[in-house]
Amino acid sequence: MKVLQFSSIIALVTLTTLAGCQHTDKTLEGSLEIKPSNVMQKLFSINTDEVFYITFPDHKNQVELTNFISANDSQGSKPYVRGVLANNKNYSASLDYTNITALNSSEDKNVFKFIAPYTLTNTTPVSDEALSNLDNPNLPSSSLYLGFFELDYNTNNITQHNQQLLGKYSTLTDINYDGQETVNVSIRQYPTETDQNKNVRSSVHALTFKAGEEMTLVDNVVAE
User: Fold this and answer.
1) What DSSP character marks residue 35?
2) What are the residues facing 122 on neighbouring strands?
């Protein structure tokens, strides 16, 4: 019987240990690998693990946009990207990405400033009222907002500067930017959520915003 020398045994154990460590490192590396954001890839053609957040009116809670969906509203079927609040599944945000509008207010080519309409939804506004200040007064079952965002291409990070409530139980009908600082938005507003679903008893509102360092409401007129 051939007996291995003690030095050979030590070498064999060392090689086996190193091989095991290499395998473990590769397994750990695979488990720590972060998938790029499908939302950032589709909306901005960026391959990054940074994500797109919507800030709620309380300025404390944020929801990550994760899923592309097609939803029906009074204008028919429209595509949205949607996310659900992590600590309260009753709340969600649906961003109308077909109406993302670029602004010309940035002198830095690596900074992309834009506005986008989104709907914040609460599925249980009555029962949840005592538990969250999101219900009162800015978020009934459905509220349409216009958000002001900034995408930094150096970091691939999106910052939301502010938001403006367009209307409760409302749908967007038009958004127009003059290329300078004026944004005109037209919405159709309904008295209740039931009216919105049935597309009855609506009124048209024309809103004008000034987009500078922040976005401010200049005028709100009932058009019809």
Assistant:
1) P
2) 91
Phi, then psi, of 98 in degrees rounded to 5: -70, -15
DSSP per-residue letters across 153-210: TTTTEEEEEEEEEEEETEEEEEEEE-SSSEEEEEEEE-SSHHHHHHT-S-EEEEEEEE
137-146 b/e with 16+ CB inside 10 Å = b? ebbbbbbbbb
Amino acid at the residue 201: R
CB 74 within 8 A of CB 188: yes
Encoded tokens for 197 = 């679903």
- pLDDT, tens digit, for every residue of 119-129? 999 887 554 44
Which of the four pLDDT bands, split at 50, 70 and 90, describes residue 33? low
Q: What is the pTM of this model?
A: 0.79
SS3 13: helix
- For residue 163, with 0-12 CB atoms within 10 Å meaning exposed, 13-18 middle and 19 or more buried, which class applies? buried
Name the token pair of 95.
């961003």
Q: Is the pLDDT of residue 14 over 70?
A: no
Helices and strands in the chain, H and E counts: 3, 13
Cα-to-chain-centroid distance, residue 87: 16
